[in-house]
Design a protein that fits this description.
Layout (H helix, E strand, L loop, with lengths): L7 E4 L7 H12 L5 E5 L10 E3 L3 H4 L5 E5 L16 H17 L4 E4 L4 H8 L6 H9 L5 E5 L4 E4 L9 H4 L2 H17 L7 E5 L14 H15 L3 E6 L7 H4 L4 E4 L2 H11 L5 E5 L5 E4 L16 H18 L4
Parallel strand pairs: 1-2, 1-5, 2-4, 3-4, 5-12, 7-10, 8-9, 8-10
Antiparallel strand pairs: 6-7, 6-11, 11-12
Length: about 325
């Protein structure tokens, strides 16, 4: 199968959310250029969807309607009302999609939003989210979450933990892994030969010489110095409030932030609809729209598929970068 024509695997996500709707919209928008295959129960697709059952990823390439690797979830879906009885099938959809990518039948994975509480209630889901589950499926202990758009790429060194726990969890090892994984991904997945990274401080004004905290002096700066000595192009630690205006963004390829909101607030402010969630450090490409299940508008036909389309386009671009001949 030609590398450029392998489809992208799309896991269905939460059936009661907007995932099925935006997947269909995305296929209608870019399916002719980027083949894809959706793994889920077609009974959960929007009313009137023209879909086509396929038995393999190869069949999706020539599909003339929305291509579905059909799964039976056993229960109907009500928009806006997550059903825990769907939980295991949702989890299996993710695992099936990963298997397709790992086998080479699909070129990349794009995941629709899940509802973690439904997965916990229905299947004792043991992971904080997609990122951690995908790492487990891939056998990786260190992965990194990137949020990316045409305007900005950001990476939080700590993710889904309370803010009070950030200073404890933010270690030299964690920061080093985050920076090295990001640096490698920018080369491999984005085709940037010499990545430039800017790193935020943890405290206001990057600690202001110890007056507002000592993490920058005691851990962050020595960690960055060690990586700079290895040849990485890194600036920082910088005051986070000066890192995201246009002139500053032009000086780096990705910003490393210390915690979740420090990274996500700027990108969601700059490009709320176009942001893409990417998991770096996996042996395969994984992207996702940078939003949740949107139960409040599910089933109304008003969901904006911009982020889903951006996630599919970015997955295709990253997959091409991974298979491109070395310069």
């Amino acid at each position: 199968m030609n590398t450029t024509r392998r489809p992208i695997a799309i896991s269905c996500g939460e059936p009661a959310g907007i995932g099925p709707e935006i997947a269909v919209t995305a296929w209608n928008a870019v399916g002719k250029d980027i083949p894809m295959v959706w793994i889920g129960d077609p009974a959960h697709l929007p009313d009137g969807t023209k879909w086509q059952a396929v038995t393999s990823a190869r069949d999706a390439i020539t599909a003339t309607a929305f291509p579905v690797l059909q799964r039976d979830f056993g229960a109907t879906s009500v928009a806006g009302q997550p059903d825990p009885s769907h939980a295991q099938a949702v989890i299996d959809s993710i695992a099936d999609a990963v298997a397709l990518v790992q086998s080479g039948d699909c070129t990349a994975l794009c995941t629709a939003p899940i509802h973690k509480q439904a997965l916990i209630d229905g299947a004792d889901f043991a992971y904080p989210g997609h990122t951690e589950y995908l790492a487990a499926l891939a056998g990786r202990t260190s992965v990194v979450m990137m949020l990316a758009s045409e305007l900005l790429r950001v990476v939080p060194a700590t993710i889904h933990i309370p803010l009070a726990q950030v200073p404890e969890k933010l270690t030299a090892a964690t920061l080093t892994d985050t920076i090295l994984i990001t640096h490698s991904a920018l080369i491999r997945d984005f085709g940037i030969a010499k990545p430039r990274l800017s790193v935020a401080g943890l405290n206001p004004h990057a600690g202001e010489g110890g007056k507002m905290g000592h993490e920058e002096i005691e851990m962050i700066t020595p960690t960055l110095d060690a990586l700079r000595a290895e040849g990485l192009s890194i600036t920082g630690p910088l005051s986070a409030d000066t890192m995201f205006h246009p002139a500053a963004r032009a000086t780096y390829d990705a910003a490393i932030c210390m915690y979740h909101d420090q990274a996500l607030i700027p990108i969601k402010t700059l490009d709320f609809s176009g942001g893409v969630n990417i998991t770096l450090g996996l042996p395969f490409v994984r992207t996702s729209p940078d939003h949740g299940t949107a139960f409040d508008i599910a089933g109304t036909g008003t969901a904006d598929a911009t982020s889903m389309i951006a996630a599919i386009r970015m997955a295709a671009d990253m997959a091409r970068a991974r298979t491109a001949p070395a310069a």
